[in-house]
Amino acid sequence: MPLSLQEVQRIAELARIGISDAEARGVRSQLNDIFELIGQMQRVNTEGIEPMSHGQDMKLRLREDIQTERDRRTQFLAVAPEKEQGLYLVPKVIE
Amino acid sequence: MLYASLKDLSAALAQRKISSVELTKLFLERIQKTNGALNAFITVDSEKSLAQARAADERIAKGDAKALTGIPVAHKDIFVAKDWLTTCGSKILSNFVSPYDAHVIERFNGAGAVILGKTNMDEFAMGSSSETSFYGPVKNPWDKTCVPGGSSGGSAAAIAARMAPAATGTDTGGSIRQPAALSGVSGLKPTYGLVSRYGMVAFASSLDQGGPIAKSAEDLALLLNVMAGFDARDSTSIERPAEDYTLDLDKPLSGLRIGVPKEHFGEGLSADVGKAVEAALAQFEKLGAKRVSIRLPSSGLSVPAYYVIAPAEASSNLSRFDGVRYGHRASGYRDLADMYRKTRAEGFGAEVRRRILIGTYVLSHGYYDAYYLKAQKIRRLIAQDFVEAFKQCDLVIGPTSPTVAFKIGAKAADPVRMYLNDIYTTPANLAGLPAMSIPCGFGNGNLPVGLHITGNYFAEARMLQVAHQYQKATDWHLRRPAGIQP
Question: Any CB–CB contact under 8 A between B320 and chain A?
Fold first, then answer.
C-alpha cells in the first residue's frame, strides 16, 4: 500500500528530520518505489524460519563489571558545538 | 615505485633503496597532481604523513621494521584517526576532528604504516557510486565521466590511479567489492567479526565489516594480516588465533571445487560482464579447478531484505547525530526539537535522509513484523543457501556487479535502479561470509570487470590463495588506466 503524504511527514517527525511539503512529495514517490521492491519479500513463505539477527550466530561476550575507560572528558568536549563548564549546552527544555 | 607491489616496496625500504619519507612524498605528489581530476581524497595532510614516515625510517634504521613499516596507506574517511578530520562524506561531520584512533588505524600505526590521507566515499557509506558524498562525486580513473563504484569509491579510485599503494574500505552490502570491480582493483570483505569496527562510523551493525583494497591478492593478504584481530571494544569481534594470510598463497589449485550459481548468470547480467567471468572460470579450470553447478535459490531476495535491514539499523545508528555532542549544529532554532530537525535536515544528504525514513518506517509500531522480522527470516534462508552450497564446493564464483561502471548521474535519481547494483554482493553480507572481487577482464567501453569470490566462514586464506594463483596466470590486475600514466 502506497504511503500518503501525511505518513511521510509522520515518519520524518519520528526521525527528527525537518521536511517541507515539496520535499515530502518528492520523497514519497521514491519511497513508494522502494517499498514496491521490498514488497517482493512477501511472496516467500517464511513460516517457522528462525530470524537471523547477525552476520553470524554468535553469543555476545560477558566481561567483568569493572571500569575500562579512562576519563577523556576534555578531549570529547573539545569537539562539541556548544559547551560550558564541562557540560554540553542545548536549548532550554523546561521554562 | 608507484606501481610496485607491497612486497617489493617493503624489500626496497628494508634494503634502503628508498626511505619512507621519499616514498610518502612520491605518493603525496601523485595525489597533488591527480586528485583535482578524480576527487578520490577528502583530506591530505603532508605534515602528519611525513612525521609518521620519519618515525618509520627511524624504526627501519633500528632494525625494528615489520612487513608494512614505512608504507603509506590511504584510509576510507569512515575510520576515525586521532587529530585527522573524519567526515564520513557528510556535512554533519564536516568539522569533526577525531579525538581518538579506530582499531584499524591503531593496528596500522602499530605496524609502522603511514596514513597517506582520508578517501572520499558515499555519505555514511550509503551508495554504490560515490556520488552521494558532501565533497562531490569521485571519478573513475578508467573513464572520468563514469562512477568508480561505491561506497569505498575514493579508496578504489586511489588504487586504480596509483595514488596510493594500499587502502582500506568498508563493506555493508558490497562497498569494498563493487568499487573494486568497477575500478579494476582487488578488494576483500572479511568474515563478519574478523576486523574490529571500533572507531569505524556505524552504518548497519549486523552487516558492517572493514577490509583492504589493493592492486593484488598478495597485497590484500599483507594488509589483512594487520587489520584482522580481536578487539574487546567491538562486541562482535571474534576471538581466534592470528593467521598469516600470505602462507598458502603459492599452493596450487588442483582439487579446488568452484561453485557456479545459476542465479548469478541469468536475467540482469550484462553480456560483456558474463563473457569476462566465463573466461575467468575457464582459466580456473586450466589451473586445475573443477567447476560445480550450484543453486542459491533465495539470493534473488537479498536486495529487498538488505534494503529493510540496512536502513533499519542505520536509522538507529544515525540517531546519534543530533548536533549536541559533535559535528554540525544548525544555527537559528526555536527549541531542542527544532534544533534536532534542522540539524539533521541540513546535515544529512538526500540518500541518507531517505534511508533513515525507510528504516524509521519499517521499525515503527505495526510494521516491525511485516518488514524487519520478515527480512531477518529471509536472511536466514539466504545464509542456508550457502550452507548447502558449501557441501558441494569450496568457493562460490560469479560476477561482482551486473554491469561495468556507469555514467555519473545515470542512476542518481532512481534509487531502486541504484540498489539493484548490489544484487550479487549483498548475500555475503547477509550471511556474514567473506567475499572478494578481483579484476578479470574488460567489458563495454573498455571498462574493468570484477570477479566475485565467496568463501565459507574464515576461508580468507583459501580465497586469497585462489585469487593469487589466478593473478599469477593473468595480468588483468596489472593493467592501468591510460589517462593516469606518467
Answer: no
